[in-house]
Amino acid sequence: MYIDTSKQCYIGLDFSRHTIFNFIKMAFSRKFREHNRERKEAKVKGGKGGDKFQNGGTLVVTAGGHDVLLRWKQDRLDDHVPVETLLKTLDIENAVPEEAVAAQREMEQTVCKI
Fold first, then answer.
1. What is the dihedral of CA 31, 35, 36, 38, to 10 degrees?
2. Which pLDDT belongs to residue 77?
């Protein structure tokens, strides 16, 4: 994992930021309110740090960084690269039990959609 505190790679990869207007629009959406209520009921605390308007993505490269295997760009605040896509990119089969994949799907459809 590489953390780019100066955001130079972030800018070079053409990742984007939401505006305050996008964030406010999302915060007043029915979907956001429903997921926020579910999160609170499940007693899941959200992270308070970081840049709340920053979208990112996932970049998987070969050893040495010469070839890009996966470039996935986050479109919405609730986007995540699917586990299946990541495993397929890394040519990993049956590494994660189906129960874990199902649990991730359920989490993405409930708590992570905030």
1. 140
2. 66
Q: Which of 67, 64, 99 is nearest to 83 (CA)?
A: 99
Three-state secondary-structure class, residue 17: strand
Range 31-38 contact pairs with CB under 8 angstroms and sequence separation of 24 or more: 31/113, 32/114, 35/78, 35/110, 35/111, 35/112, 35/113, 35/114, 36/114, 38/110, 38/111
- Pairwise CA distance, residues 75 & 79, whole Å: 6
Give the pLDDT means over successive 10-residue stretches in the chain (114 positions): 77 80 79 81 75 80 90 76 87 73 73 54
Q: Tokens representing 45?
A: 């605390």
SS3 letters for 25-91? HHHCCHHHHHHHHHHHHCCCCCCCCCCCCECCEEEEECHHHCCEEEEEECCCCCCCCCHHHHHHHCC
Place of tokens 């070969």: 62
